[in-house]
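Worked Example 4.2. Consider the chain below.
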Amino acid sequence: MTDESDTPASRQRVVRVPGSRRARLTPVPGSDPEPESGTGDPTAPAVRAKGVKGPNDDQLIQDVPPHY
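Applying the procedure from the previous section yields the following structure tokens:
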């Protein structure tokens, strides 16, 4: 029992990337290989969820974890 959509031409292939430790998959047929675009500005602050602000929210946002 073979499925018509499981032919080698319609499957992804593993492609070795020279100088890289990881291999790459070819795009799925019919998909968009480009990643979704964000705001375009990498320095833009993260968007917070809207809601009621708590008493210590400002302090929690300013705190930096100790491993930084």
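The longest helix spans residues 57-62. The chain has a mean pLDDT of 77. Compare this with Example 4.1 before moving on.
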